[in-house]
Design brief:
Layout: H1 2-24, H2 28-48, H3 52-77, H4 81-86, H5 92-109, H6 128-133, H7 137-147, H8 150-171, H9 183-188, H10 191-194
Protein name: NADH-ubiquinone oxidoreductase chain 6
Organism: Pycnococcus provasolii
EC number: 7.1.1.2
Length: 199
C-alpha cells in the first residue's frame, strides 16, 4: 500500500511539474508538448486510482483531439516568442490571487483529519454472487452500450463518419488553373498521339 501511494505521489508530482512547464516554457510548441505530457500523467494517476473510464477519456479527448489540434495550430501560426514572453509577466498578480483563493477554499473544504471509524464500514455478511459477478466501471459502460443501446452507438458512429466526410468535401477545392494528375485520363491516351518525332 505504501509503494502504491509513493508511485501515485511521484506521478502526481511529475504532472504538477509538467503543468508548470506549460506556463513557463518560452516556446509555444514546448508548452503544448508539456500539456500533452501532463494529460498523460493525469491519466496514469486515474489508472492508479482505478478510474478507468476517466483515464481513457483524458487520453482520447484531451490528448487525441484537443492537444494535437493545439500543436498543429501553434506550428502553423508561427507565434513570435518575444511578444508572447513580454506579455507573460502581467498575469502574475492574477495568478497569485487565484492560487491563494484556491488554497483558501481547499483549506475550508478539507476536513482537519481523515480518521474514520472503520467499524461502521465492515459489512455483516458478504454477498458472493455480487462479489464474483461485479463489473468494473469500463465493463459496465461497455455492457450497457453494446447490449441495450447499440443503435445509439451506431448512430454516433454514423454522425462522426458524416462529419469526417463533410470536412473532407468542404476542404477539397478544385482550382481551374491547377494541374492535377488524372490517372484514368493518362491511361486512356494513345501513345501514337503523344509521341512526336523531332528532327
Amino acid at each position: 500500500m505504501l509503494f502504491q501511494q509513493s508511485i501515485l505521489c511521484f506521478i502526481a508530482g511529475l504532472a504538477c511539474g509538467a503543468g508548470f512547464l506549460v506556463i513557463s516554457s518560452k516556446s509555444p510548441v514546448h508548452s503544448v508538448l508539456s500539456l500533452i505530457f501532463s494529460f498523460v500523467l493525469c491519466s496514469f494517476v486515474l489508472l492508479t486510482l482505478e478510474i478507468d473510464i476517466l483515464a481513457l477519456i483524458f487520453l482520447i479527448v484531451y490528448v487525441g483531439a484537443i492537444a494535437i489540434l493545439f500543436l498543429f495550430v501553434v506550428m502553423i501560426l508561427n507565434v513570435k516568442v518575444a511578444e508572447a514572453r513580454a506579455n507573460l509577466f502581467q498575469y502574475f498578480p492574477l495568478g497569485f490571487f487565484l492560487l491563494s483563493l484556491l488554497y483558501f477554499d481547499l483549506g475550508l473544504l478539507m476536513p482537519a483529519s481523515f480518521s474514520v471509524d472503520v467499524a461502521h464500514f465492515i459489512p455483516f455478511y458478504l454477498e458472493w454472487p455480487k462479489a464474483v459477478l461485479s463489473f468494473g466501471c469500463l465493463e459496465s459502460i461497455g455492457f450497457l452500450l453494446y447490449t441495450y443501446f447499440p443503435f445509439y452507438l451506431i448512430g454516433a458512429g454514423l454522425l462522426l463518419l458524416l462529419a469526417i466526410v463533410g470536412a473532407i468535401l468542404l476542404t477539397l477545392h478544385r482550382g481551374v488553373g491547377v494541374h492535377r494528375q488524372e490517372v484514368s485520363f493518362q491511361n486512356r491516351r494513345d501513345w501514337v498521339e503523344v509521341l512526336h518525332m523531332v528532327q
